[in-house]
Amino acid sequence: MTTGLHEEMNTAIVRMRRCTDDNVLSDVRAAVGYIKTQSFVQGDKIGIVGFCDGG
Question: Which residues of the chain, if any, have pLDDT below 70?
Fold first, then answer.
């Protein structure tokens, strides 16, 4: 799969529709947990940025 092509929009929409709040929160918690294990990370200085593509 090549990323960023307009032809992949239908695939992207199908995947986005399968996302749930619980799944997204679980992924974010897992990512933050992993980041905190890295020796170069200050665990109390982690930030998250999100974007909304409308909806």
Answer: 1-5, 54-55
C-alpha 11/C-alpha 15 separation (Å) is 6
Q: Alpha-carbon torsion 15, 21, 26, 29, what sign? A: positive
CA atoms within 13 A on the CB side of 45: 4
- Predicted structure pTM score: 0.64
The answer for 4, left when phi > 0, alpha when psi is -120 to 50, beta otherwise, is left
Residue type, 49: V
The answer to whether residues 48 and 42 touch, using CB atoms and an 8 Å cutoff, is no
Return the sign of the alpha-carbon dihedral for residues 20, 21, 26, 31.
positive
